[in-house]
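Late entry, written up from scratch paper. The run itself happened at the end of the previous shift, but nothing got recorded in the book at the time, so transcribing now.
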Amino acid sequence: MSYLEEIQVKNLDHLGIVAGLIDEIGIVKIINNKLGIDVREKISAGTVVKSILINGLGFVSRPLYLFSQFFQDKAIEKLLGERIKPDYLNDDKIGRVMDELYKYGLNDIFIEVVLEVIKKIKIDLKYSHLDSTSFHLDGEYKREEDKEKQEEEKIIKERPILIKKGYSRDHRPDLKQCVLDLITSQDGDIPLFVRVGDGNESDKAVFGKVLVEFKKQIKFDSIMVCDSALYGQENLQLIQHLKWITRVPMTIKKAKELVQNIEVEEVKDEDKEKRSDLNLESYTWKEEIVTYGGIKQTWLIVLSEKRQKSDLEKLEKQLSQEEKKSQKVLKEIQSEEFEHPQAARYKLKAINKKLRLLEIKEVELIETYSKKKEKSYKMISLIIKKDKEIR
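Output as recorded:
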Protein backbone atom coordinates (compact mmCIF):
# COMPACT_ATOMS: atom_id res chain seq x y z
CA MET A 1 0.00 0.00 0.00
CA SER A 2 1.40 3.40 -0.98
CA TYR A 3 1.58 6.39 1.33
CA LEU A 4 -0.93 8.24 -0.89
CA GLU A 5 -3.58 5.59 -0.24
CA GLU A 6 -3.22 6.15 3.53
CA ILE A 7 -3.70 9.95 3.35
CA GLN A 8 -7.09 11.27 4.43
CA VAL A 9 -8.02 14.92 3.94
CA LYS A 10 -10.27 16.57 6.57
CA ASN A 11 -11.50 20.17 6.66
CA LEU A 12 -11.30 22.71 9.44
CA ASP A 13 -12.11 25.90 7.53
CA HIS A 14 -12.91 28.74 9.97
CA LEU A 15 -14.33 26.28 12.52
CA GLY A 16 -10.95 25.79 14.19
CA ILE A 17 -11.12 29.42 15.37
CA VAL A 18 -14.73 28.89 16.58
CA ALA A 19 -13.73 25.75 18.51
CA GLY A 20 -10.74 27.57 20.01
CA LEU A 21 -12.93 30.43 21.29
CA ILE A 22 -15.43 27.98 22.79
CA ASP A 23 -12.56 26.29 24.65
CA GLU A 24 -11.11 29.62 25.80
CA ILE A 25 -14.45 30.72 27.27
CA GLY A 26 -14.93 27.31 28.88
CA ILE A 27 -18.45 26.62 27.61
CA VAL A 28 -18.01 22.83 27.64
CA LYS A 29 -16.91 22.87 31.28
CA ILE A 30 -19.77 25.16 32.31
CA ILE A 31 -22.38 22.92 30.66
CA ASN A 32 -20.90 19.73 32.15
CA ASN A 33 -20.79 21.28 35.62
CA LYS A 34 -24.46 22.23 35.38
CA LEU A 35 -25.84 19.06 33.76
CA GLY A 36 -23.32 16.55 35.08
CA ILE A 37 -21.35 13.82 33.31
CA ASP A 38 -22.49 10.22 33.02
CA VAL A 39 -19.48 7.87 32.70
CA ARG A 40 -21.57 5.62 30.44
CA GLU A 41 -21.91 8.39 27.83
CA LYS A 42 -19.68 8.38 24.80
CA ILE A 43 -19.98 12.16 24.50
CA SER A 44 -20.76 14.72 27.22
CA ALA A 45 -23.55 17.31 27.13
CA GLY A 46 -20.96 20.11 26.98
CA THR A 47 -19.34 18.62 23.90
CA VAL A 48 -22.76 18.23 22.24
CA VAL A 49 -23.42 21.95 22.85
CA LYS A 50 -20.01 22.73 21.36
CA SER A 51 -20.89 20.68 18.26
CA ILE A 52 -24.20 22.59 17.94
CA LEU A 53 -22.36 25.93 18.07
CA ILE A 54 -19.85 24.78 15.46
CA ASN A 55 -22.65 23.49 13.24
CA GLY A 56 -24.61 26.75 13.61
CA LEU A 57 -21.57 28.79 12.61
CA GLY A 58 -20.87 26.45 9.70
CA PHE A 59 -23.56 28.25 7.67
CA VAL A 60 -25.62 25.15 6.87
CA SER A 61 -29.31 24.39 7.20
CA ARG A 62 -30.17 20.71 7.57
CA PRO A 63 -32.74 18.65 9.52
CA LEU A 64 -31.59 17.41 12.92
CA TYR A 65 -31.39 13.78 11.79
CA LEU A 66 -28.69 14.81 9.28
CA PHE A 67 -26.66 16.64 11.93
CA SER A 68 -23.87 14.04 12.04
CA GLN A 69 -23.27 14.37 8.28
CA PHE A 70 -21.92 17.86 8.84
CA PHE A 71 -18.87 16.38 10.60
CA GLN A 72 -18.19 13.57 8.10
CA ASP A 73 -15.58 15.59 6.19
CA LYS A 74 -14.37 17.60 9.21
CA ALA A 75 -11.40 16.92 11.48
CA ILE A 76 -13.83 16.12 14.29
CA GLU A 77 -11.18 15.01 16.82
CA LYS A 78 -9.44 18.37 16.43
CA LEU A 79 -12.72 20.24 16.88
CA LEU A 80 -14.46 18.19 19.59
CA GLY A 81 -11.82 15.97 21.18
CA GLU A 82 -10.10 12.61 20.83
CA ARG A 83 -12.13 9.47 20.08
CA ILE A 84 -15.23 11.52 19.16
CA LYS A 85 -17.00 10.18 16.08
CA PRO A 86 -19.76 11.81 13.97
CA ASP A 87 -22.16 8.95 14.75
CA TYR A 88 -22.21 10.00 18.41
CA LEU A 89 -24.00 13.19 17.38
CA ASN A 90 -27.35 11.64 16.50
CA ASP A 91 -30.71 13.36 16.83
CA ASP A 92 -31.68 11.33 19.93
CA LYS A 93 -28.59 12.47 21.85
CA ILE A 94 -28.97 16.10 20.76
CA GLY A 95 -32.67 16.07 21.68
CA ARG A 96 -31.96 14.74 25.19
CA VAL A 97 -29.31 17.40 25.79
CA MET A 98 -31.67 20.13 24.60
CA ASP A 99 -34.36 18.88 26.99
CA GLU A 100 -31.90 18.92 29.88
CA LEU A 101 -30.79 22.45 29.03
CA TYR A 102 -34.40 23.65 28.96
CA LYS A 103 -35.22 22.00 32.30
CA TYR A 104 -32.16 23.50 33.97
CA GLY A 105 -32.88 27.00 32.61
CA LEU A 106 -31.30 28.43 29.49
CA ASN A 107 -31.07 31.94 30.92
CA ASP A 108 -29.08 30.77 33.95
CA ILE A 109 -26.56 28.93 31.76
CA PHE A 110 -26.36 31.78 29.26
CA ILE A 111 -25.66 34.34 31.97
CA GLU A 112 -22.87 32.23 33.50
CA VAL A 113 -21.23 31.99 30.08
CA VAL A 114 -21.67 35.77 29.64
CA LEU A 115 -19.98 36.50 32.98
CA GLU A 116 -17.05 34.30 31.99
CA VAL A 117 -16.73 36.17 28.67
CA ILE A 118 -16.85 39.54 30.46
CA LYS A 119 -14.07 38.44 32.81
CA LYS A 120 -11.80 36.95 30.16
CA ILE A 121 -12.21 39.57 27.41
CA LYS A 122 -12.71 42.56 29.75
CA ILE A 123 -15.85 43.92 28.09
CA ASP A 124 -16.72 47.61 28.59
CA LEU A 125 -20.12 47.62 30.31
CA LYS A 126 -20.74 51.34 30.72
CA TYR A 127 -23.65 51.02 28.27
CA SER A 128 -25.90 48.07 27.38
CA HIS A 129 -28.31 48.02 24.43
CA LEU A 130 -31.72 46.31 24.33
CA ASP A 131 -33.69 45.51 21.19
CA SER A 132 -35.86 42.74 19.76
CA THR A 133 -36.32 40.89 16.49
CA SER A 134 -38.51 38.09 15.16
CA PHE A 135 -37.91 34.77 13.40
CA HIS A 136 -40.56 33.21 11.20
CA LEU A 137 -41.25 29.47 11.48
CA ASP A 138 -42.98 26.97 9.21
CA GLY A 139 -45.83 24.80 10.44
CA GLU A 140 -49.21 25.33 12.10
CA TYR A 141 -48.20 25.22 15.81
CA LYS A 142 -51.75 24.69 17.04
CA ARG A 143 -52.49 25.34 20.71
CA GLU A 144 -55.68 25.47 22.75
CA GLU A 145 -57.09 28.95 23.31
CA ASP A 146 -57.18 28.65 27.11
CA LYS A 147 -53.47 27.77 27.20
CA GLU A 148 -52.64 30.82 25.08
CA LYS A 149 -54.16 33.13 27.71
CA GLN A 150 -52.11 31.78 30.63
CA GLU A 151 -49.44 34.03 32.16
CA GLU A 152 -49.44 36.48 29.23
CA GLU A 153 -47.87 39.24 31.29
CA LYS A 154 -45.07 37.33 33.04
CA ILE A 155 -41.48 37.71 31.91
CA ILE A 156 -40.55 34.17 33.00
CA LYS A 157 -43.04 31.53 31.91
CA GLU A 158 -43.20 27.91 32.93
CA ARG A 159 -45.06 27.10 29.73
CA PRO A 160 -43.23 27.10 26.37
CA ILE A 161 -43.52 30.17 24.15
CA LEU A 162 -46.48 30.54 21.79
CA ILE A 163 -45.69 30.46 18.08
CA LYS A 164 -48.15 32.99 16.69
CA LYS A 165 -48.53 35.63 14.00
CA GLY A 166 -47.39 39.12 14.96
CA TYR A 167 -45.41 42.09 13.70
CA SER A 168 -42.84 40.49 11.39
CA ARG A 169 -39.41 42.10 11.33
CA ASP A 170 -38.09 39.61 8.79
CA HIS A 171 -40.87 40.48 6.31
CA ARG A 172 -42.86 37.24 6.49
CA PRO A 173 -46.24 38.33 7.93
CA ASP A 174 -47.85 35.26 6.34
CA LEU A 175 -46.04 32.90 8.78
CA LYS A 176 -46.15 32.42 12.53
CA GLN A 177 -43.11 33.49 14.48
CA CYS A 178 -41.30 33.86 17.80
CA VAL A 179 -39.66 36.99 19.22
CA LEU A 180 -36.10 37.34 20.53
CA ASP A 181 -35.18 40.04 23.07
CA LEU A 182 -31.44 40.65 23.25
CA ILE A 183 -29.24 42.88 25.42
CA THR A 184 -25.74 43.49 24.09
CA SER A 185 -22.69 45.36 25.34
CA GLN A 186 -21.45 48.65 23.97
CA ASP A 187 -18.03 47.12 23.32
CA GLY A 188 -18.23 44.75 20.37
CA ASP A 189 -21.95 43.94 20.67
CA ILE A 190 -21.33 40.97 22.96
CA PRO A 191 -24.71 39.39 23.94
CA LEU A 192 -25.34 39.79 27.68
CA PHE A 193 -28.92 38.61 28.07
CA VAL A 194 -31.28 36.73 25.78
CA ARG A 195 -34.95 35.89 26.08
CA VAL A 196 -37.37 34.24 23.65
CA GLY A 197 -41.00 35.37 23.66
CA ASP A 198 -44.38 34.73 22.04
CA GLY A 199 -44.82 35.62 18.38
CA ASN A 200 -47.37 38.36 19.07
CA GLU A 201 -45.49 39.91 21.96
CA SER A 202 -45.29 43.71 22.15
CA ASP A 203 -41.99 45.46 22.91
CA LYS A 204 -43.81 48.07 24.97
CA ALA A 205 -45.33 45.37 27.19
CA VAL A 206 -42.08 43.55 28.04
CA PHE A 207 -39.05 45.86 27.65
CA GLY A 208 -39.33 47.24 31.19
CA LYS A 209 -39.64 43.73 32.66
CA VAL A 210 -36.67 42.52 30.59
CA LEU A 211 -34.41 45.25 32.00
CA VAL A 212 -35.52 44.56 35.57
CA GLU A 213 -34.88 40.82 35.14
CA PHE A 214 -31.50 41.54 33.55
CA LYS A 215 -30.43 43.71 36.48
CA LYS A 216 -31.50 41.04 38.96
CA GLN A 217 -29.26 38.45 37.36
CA ILE A 218 -26.20 40.49 36.39
CA LYS A 219 -24.86 42.87 39.02
CA PHE A 220 -23.03 45.78 37.40
CA ASP A 221 -23.73 49.47 36.96
CA SER A 222 -24.62 49.80 33.28
CA ILE A 223 -26.65 52.50 31.50
CA MET A 224 -29.42 50.78 29.52
CA VAL A 225 -30.01 52.10 25.98
CA CYS A 226 -33.26 51.27 24.21
CA ASP A 227 -35.58 52.59 21.50
CA SER A 228 -38.87 54.42 22.15
CA ALA A 229 -40.75 51.15 22.83
CA LEU A 230 -39.37 51.39 26.38
CA TYR A 231 -40.91 54.80 27.00
CA GLY A 232 -44.28 54.40 28.68
CA GLN A 233 -45.69 55.15 32.11
CA GLU A 234 -45.78 51.50 33.23
CA ASN A 235 -42.21 50.81 32.08
CA LEU A 236 -40.93 54.02 33.68
CA GLN A 237 -42.32 52.88 37.01
CA LEU A 238 -40.53 49.53 36.63
CA ILE A 239 -37.14 51.01 35.75
CA GLN A 240 -37.16 54.12 37.93
CA HIS A 241 -34.21 52.78 39.98
CA LEU A 242 -32.13 51.96 36.87
CA LYS A 243 -30.01 54.17 34.62
CA TRP A 244 -31.42 54.35 31.11
CA ILE A 245 -31.45 56.32 27.85
CA THR A 246 -34.26 56.17 25.30
CA ARG A 247 -36.04 58.31 22.70
CA VAL A 248 -39.25 59.99 23.74
CA PRO A 249 -41.93 59.18 21.11
CA MET A 250 -43.58 62.18 19.46
CA THR A 251 -46.98 60.60 20.09
CA ILE A 252 -46.70 62.01 23.63
CA LYS A 253 -48.46 65.39 23.73
CA LYS A 254 -45.92 66.99 26.08
CA ALA A 255 -43.02 66.03 23.78
CA LYS A 256 -44.76 67.38 20.68
CA GLU A 257 -45.55 70.70 22.35
CA LEU A 258 -42.01 71.04 23.68
CA VAL A 259 -40.39 70.45 20.29
CA GLN A 260 -42.71 72.93 18.58
CA ASN A 261 -42.28 75.72 21.13
CA ILE A 262 -38.75 75.46 22.51
CA GLU A 263 -35.83 77.51 21.19
CA VAL A 264 -32.57 75.58 21.06
CA GLU A 265 -29.82 77.58 22.77
CA GLU A 266 -26.95 79.12 20.87
CA VAL A 267 -23.64 77.31 21.14
CA LYS A 268 -21.27 79.02 23.55
CA ASP A 269 -17.76 79.88 22.30
CA GLU A 270 -16.11 77.66 24.90
CA ASP A 271 -18.19 74.69 23.73
CA LYS A 272 -17.43 75.08 20.01
CA GLU A 273 -13.95 73.56 20.29
CA LYS A 274 -15.33 70.56 22.20
CA ARG A 275 -18.03 70.01 19.59
CA SER A 276 -15.47 70.25 16.81
CA ASP A 277 -13.38 67.52 18.45
CA LEU A 278 -16.48 65.30 18.67
CA ASN A 279 -17.57 66.16 15.11
CA LEU A 280 -20.76 67.78 16.44
CA GLU A 281 -20.43 71.26 14.89
CA SER A 282 -23.78 70.98 13.10
CA TYR A 283 -25.69 70.02 16.27
CA THR A 284 -27.27 72.23 18.91
CA TRP A 285 -29.34 71.09 21.86
CA LYS A 286 -31.11 72.08 25.04
CA GLU A 287 -31.88 70.17 28.23
CA GLU A 288 -35.31 70.25 29.88
CA ILE A 289 -36.21 68.77 33.27
CA VAL A 290 -39.55 67.02 32.84
CA THR A 291 -41.74 64.91 35.12
CA TYR A 292 -43.61 62.22 33.20
CA GLY A 293 -45.25 59.12 34.58
CA GLY A 294 -44.40 60.39 38.04
CA ILE A 295 -40.66 60.12 37.26
CA LYS A 296 -38.38 63.16 37.10
CA GLN A 297 -36.10 62.93 34.06
CA THR A 298 -33.96 64.96 31.65
CA TRP A 299 -35.14 65.40 28.08
CA LEU A 300 -32.57 66.47 25.47
CA ILE A 301 -33.97 68.35 22.46
CA VAL A 302 -31.46 68.12 19.60
CA LEU A 303 -31.34 70.12 16.39
CA SER A 304 -29.20 68.90 13.48
CA GLU A 305 -28.55 71.48 10.77
CA LYS A 306 -27.65 68.80 8.22
CA ARG A 307 -30.78 66.80 9.00
CA GLN A 308 -32.95 69.91 8.88
CA LYS A 309 -31.54 70.89 5.49
CA SER A 310 -32.04 67.35 4.17
CA ASP A 311 -35.62 67.22 5.47
CA LEU A 312 -36.48 70.58 3.87
CA GLU A 313 -35.08 69.46 0.52
CA LYS A 314 -37.08 66.26 0.74
CA LEU A 315 -40.22 68.21 1.66
CA GLU A 316 -39.82 70.56 -1.31
CA LYS A 317 -39.49 67.56 -3.61
CA GLN A 318 -42.63 65.98 -2.14
CA LEU A 319 -44.52 69.27 -2.51
CA SER A 320 -43.52 69.54 -6.16
CA GLN A 321 -44.62 65.96 -6.87
CA GLU A 322 -47.94 66.40 -5.08
CA GLU A 323 -48.63 69.70 -6.83
CA LYS A 324 -48.24 68.00 -10.21
CA LYS A 325 -50.53 65.21 -9.05
CA SER A 326 -53.17 67.67 -7.79
CA GLN A 327 -53.13 69.69 -11.02
CA LYS A 328 -53.84 66.52 -12.96
CA VAL A 329 -56.77 65.70 -10.66
CA LEU A 330 -58.14 69.22 -10.96
CA LYS A 331 -58.23 69.04 -14.75
CA GLU A 332 -60.25 65.85 -14.49
CA ILE A 333 -62.87 67.20 -12.07
CA GLN A 334 -63.23 70.50 -13.96
CA SER A 335 -64.73 68.52 -16.83
CA GLU A 336 -67.08 66.66 -14.48
CA GLU A 337 -70.72 67.69 -13.98
CA PHE A 338 -72.56 67.51 -10.64
CA GLU A 339 -76.28 67.38 -9.97
CA HIS A 340 -76.12 69.85 -7.09
CA PRO A 341 -73.43 71.94 -5.28
CA GLN A 342 -73.28 69.59 -2.31
CA ALA A 343 -72.19 66.72 -4.57
CA ALA A 344 -69.30 68.86 -5.79
CA ARG A 345 -68.29 69.65 -2.19
CA TYR A 346 -68.31 65.93 -1.27
CA LYS A 347 -66.09 65.22 -4.26
CA LEU A 348 -63.68 67.96 -3.22
CA LYS A 349 -63.58 66.67 0.36
CA ALA A 350 -62.65 63.17 -0.85
CA ILE A 351 -59.83 64.61 -2.98
CA ASN A 352 -58.42 66.63 -0.08
CA LYS A 353 -58.25 63.49 2.07
CA LYS A 354 -55.90 61.93 -0.47
CA LEU A 355 -53.59 64.97 -0.55
CA ARG A 356 -50.97 64.92 2.21
CA LEU A 357 -49.23 68.28 1.79
CA LEU A 358 -51.67 70.42 -0.20
CA GLU A 359 -55.30 71.41 0.16
CA ILE A 360 -57.83 72.82 -2.29
CA LYS A 361 -59.21 75.80 -0.35
CA GLU A 362 -61.39 77.89 -2.70
CA VAL A 363 -63.73 76.66 -5.42
CA GLU A 364 -66.03 78.51 -7.82
CA LEU A 365 -69.05 76.71 -9.29
CA ILE A 366 -71.16 77.70 -12.29
CA GLU A 367 -74.56 76.47 -13.38
CA THR A 368 -74.73 74.65 -16.70
CA TYR A 369 -77.60 73.20 -18.70
CA SER A 370 -77.64 70.07 -20.82
CA LYS A 371 -79.50 69.64 -24.08
CA LYS A 372 -82.48 68.40 -22.11
CA LYS A 373 -82.36 71.71 -20.17
CA GLU A 374 -81.40 69.92 -16.96
CA LYS A 375 -79.40 72.06 -14.56
CA SER A 376 -75.98 70.87 -13.36
CA TYR A 377 -72.82 72.39 -11.86
CA LYS A 378 -69.18 72.56 -12.85
CA MET A 379 -66.04 73.63 -11.02
CA ILE A 380 -64.32 76.36 -13.01
CA SER A 381 -61.86 77.80 -10.50
CA LEU A 382 -59.86 75.96 -7.84
CA ILE A 383 -57.12 77.44 -5.64
CA ILE A 384 -54.48 75.21 -4.05
CA LYS A 385 -52.90 76.31 -0.79
CA LYS A 386 -49.85 74.83 0.94
CA ASP A 387 -51.18 75.38 4.42
CA LYS A 388 -52.44 71.89 5.12
CA GLU A 389 -50.90 70.37 8.25
CA ILE A 390 -48.05 68.04 7.30
CA ARG A 391 -48.60 64.54 8.71
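The radius of gyration is 31 Å.
(Scratch paper discarded after transcription.)
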